[in-house]
Structure formats: C-alpha cells, structure tokens
Amino acid sequence: MQNRIRAVRWQEMVTPLAAVILALAIGAGFILFVGENPLTAYKILFVESFGNLRNLATTLQRATPLMFTGLAVAFGYRAGLFNIGAEGQLYIGAFAAAWVGFTLTGAPRFIHLPLAIIAGMLGGALWGSIPGYLKAKLGVHEVINTIMLNFIALYLTDWLATGPFHGGSWVPETARIKPAAALTRLYPPTRLTTGVFLALLAAFVVYLVLWKTRQGYELRAVGLNPDAAEYGGINVARNTVLAMAISGALAGLAGTEQILGLHNRFIVRFSSDLGFMGIAVALLGKNHPFGVILAAVLFGALQTGSAAMDRLTSVPRELITIIQALIIFFVAAEYLIRRILRMKEGA
C-alpha cells in the first residue's frame, strides 16, 4: 500500500515536468521553423527571466497574481468544485480594495493597508459564495454560475469606475488610493511588491487548512465523494458555500495585489485574463498549493522572457502562448492516458 502511495505521488510530480519538457521540445521545432537556434532562444528566455536579481523580481511580479488565482481554482477543485469565476471574483475584490484605499483618509498605514486587503478578500469571498449558495441550495452547476457572474462583475465594475466612483480624469478609472494603502515595492525599479509574500503565506495557509485541519478534511471529503461525506455526517451544502467563498477570497487577493501594488487605483479591464490563467496554473500545479506556486513562477518566467526573445530573435512572443497551451494539453492528457491504460488492463 505504501509503495502504491509513493508511486502515485511520484507520478503526480513527474507528469507536470514531462509536460513542460514535451512542450519545450515542440516549441523548439517551431523555433527551427523560423530559422532560429532553439538553444539560443531558450537561453535568452531563461536569462531574461532568472539571469539577475532584476529579472527574477520581474518574473516574481508577474507570477504573484497567478499564485492567487491558481490557489483559488485549486482550493475549489479540492472541494469538488470547478471555479472558473476567478476573473469576476478578482474584479470585485480589486474594486473593494480600491474603494477602501481611496475613501479612507487619515488612517495610519498599519490600519489602512490591512483594511484594504481584508476588503479585497471579502469582496471576492462574497462574489464566490453566490455560485456556492446556488450550487448548495438549488443544485445549479457552478460552471454556469461562475461564467455568468464573470460578466456581471466585469460590467458592474466598469459602471462603478466610470460612473459614481470615477476619478475625474479622461481615463476610465477611480481616484488613486492613499499612499498608506499601497503595498511596498521590494526592488525598484521593478514592480515587485510585498504582495509576493502575501501569496506565499496564502499558499502555506491553504496547505494547512486542507491537510492539517478537520475543516480541510471535510472539504476534501466532499470533493472526493459528496454522497459518502453526507452519509458520514458532513454538511455538504455548508462546505460547498464555504469552499467557494474561500476560493473567491483568494481570487480577490489577486485583484487586491494588482490594485494596491501596481496600479494604485482601479482601472477598467486591468486584468489580462489573470483569473482564467489561474485555471492553467492550478492544472499544472496538480491543485496542490506548493505546486501552484511553482507553476505560477514558470508562467511568470515565460511571460517575462518572451518579450526579450521576441526582441532579440525572430521568434515571435506568441510562441510562448503556444508553449503554455501545450503544457496544459499534456497535463490534461494524463487523464485520457490513464483511461486508455485502464481499458487495456480490463480487456
């Protein structure tokens, strides 16, 4: 039994690594096709992502919001929920954090900043709990709910930022947050902030909650088999709402980090699909908090190095998008491969 558990854990680690290697190998074929040396292109990609402290800081800055959204998707998945509404939860959390940031005046930093962060978490949690409640009480599938709520969140924050809370400039944005509500830059002139420590802390807390607490056991039990969990005395409905609320809070932190750390105000459509990228990050990280962190860093590195590869070679930056898609394809294909192997064993 122990050997089987070790084999499963080993496979969980090897599959993402193999997916990355295969994707890079296919990407090398594209690079050869455009007349470039794959080794040279990948060297540029690596150096521009990790070659010095400044490049590493830029990679971590790009990875930070993906850590939050990846954790959001992974947490929901562990409870048997496919939360694809992280984008909407991100926007609601971002606006809530911005609102506290620009409306509260005269508060010291040790009060203002935590309040803005908590507001972002609560905004995301509220938005996430809506599909959780509809799932628990009415049986409406969370995929449909979260898709619809993404659009509602997007257009609601558009209206808030261009209407009652418009900052007065020609840009569709709110007023700037107060300096006391801004996250600290760690390595200027890069835009890496203390938000990266918040993301690492969130991953550690998620791990503790899921694997070291009774509540986490209940959430994972619901995810594995809700009927058996209900028979064992676990309140499935309550855990469903709770899981979606926590998932939403994590996504809200992604928006909070972007507003308090990068933009310092809420800007309409500021997210470059960070919520949807979180799905890919969670999938590559095998829905484990620490795996999500590593996957987010990889995606951050690909984004950071792609600009330099595009600038210094004839390899277009769109190749990185292809590589990311291939990574996810190969990770997702693991399920299909397992099904085929089981069919052969049963034959």
Describe this structure in words.
48% of the residues are buried. Helices cover 77% and strands 0% of the residues. Helix 3 packs across helix 12 (289-312) and helix 7 (195-212) crosses helix 8. The radius of gyration is 21 Å and the shape is globular. It has a domain at 71-288. With 347 residues, the chain is mainly alpha-helical. The chain starts with a helix and ends with a helix. It has helices at residues 2-33, 38-50, 53-78, 86-103, 109-138, 142-162, 195-212, 214-224, 226-231, 236-263, 274-284, 289-312, 318-346.
Report a brief summary of the structure:
The chain has 347 residues and is mainly alpha-helical. The protein has 13 helices and no strands.
- The radius of gyration computed from the alpha-carbon positions, rounded to a whole number of angstroms, is 21 Å
N- and C-termini, Cα separation: 25 Å
Parts with pLDDT < 50 across at least 5 consecutive residues: none
Tally of alpha and pi helices:
13
Percent of residues in beta strands? under 5%
Structural class: mainly alpha
Helix content, binned percent? over 70%
- The ordered H/E elements are HHHHHHHHHHHHH
Mean pLDDT: 91
Backbone shape: globular
* Number of separate strands: 0
Largest sheet: none
